[in-house]
Amino acid sequence: MGGTVKYQEITIQTNVETLDALILQLEDRGITDLIVNDPRELPELMENKETYHWDYIDESVIRELSADPSIIFYREEGSDLSSLLDGLDPSDISVKAVDDQDWLHRWKDYFEPALITARFVVKPAWSSYTAGPGEQVIDMDPGMAFGTGTHATTRLCLKLMEKYLKPGDRVMDVGTGTGILSIAAAMLGSGDVLAVDIDPQAVAVARENIIKNHVDAVIHTALADLTDGVDFQADVVVANLMADLVIRLSDSVKEHLAEKGIYISSGIIQGKEISVRSALESSGFQVVESLQEDEWWAIAAKRL
User: Fold this and answer.
1) What are the residue boundaries of the structural domains of the chain, listed by start?
2) What is the average pLDDT across 53-75?
């Protein structure tokens, strides 16, 4: 009989100035299951009671958010961490062993209902929430390896989707992850949605969330590397990826996009938005709108 699986909890201490760059660096190394403690969130949390729907905040939460920022992720005991942590200051890193039951659910402590646009509320599937006037609620169970959907890149993408999606549009969501953008597209009235991801676990998680939100009649899933081998024509393509992947997708996405169709891209770190715009324009797109939040950009471009 096998014993209890052990995991390593890796904590990286950092500072506000380097936090976003560190998140991007870790994600580039394939570490997407990040728990981020960011003190910049505390003033917004305290000042926007109605947005975040709290009546009381425990002092431990205030202490944690008031401290220097940190990033936590988990790996199975015995995993080689050297390549993941290469180049980081060892004095900023701590590693401790935890049981699987300790950490498999710990990330849920950080996931509360949140109004992420004027229209959409993202809430954990295991919690209750009463929607306010005009609100649409997306139930999410992201699993331990995927984000909760409240990151700035998701919010920016949703804002552009709210503006440019029309009822009945066919939508392709490239790099769907949890399926949140596909679910939102269905709730916005899309007639047919294809959610694509290269990761089989992501496709499985997305499918579960699609069913939870009762939009499985509209959304189909596919396992693919970006759009390779995908046979689907869309009015709108959404891609919350990284800048390099957005650029790589700029040419091939045209094959799947109707004339005058809209390509909405997000996950673009500040400093790379100019390269993305240039790639889009070189590929026959006209940039119609750009949005920025903190270090992140999202771009809506029209196929000419």
Assistant:
1) 6-110, 120-303
2) 63
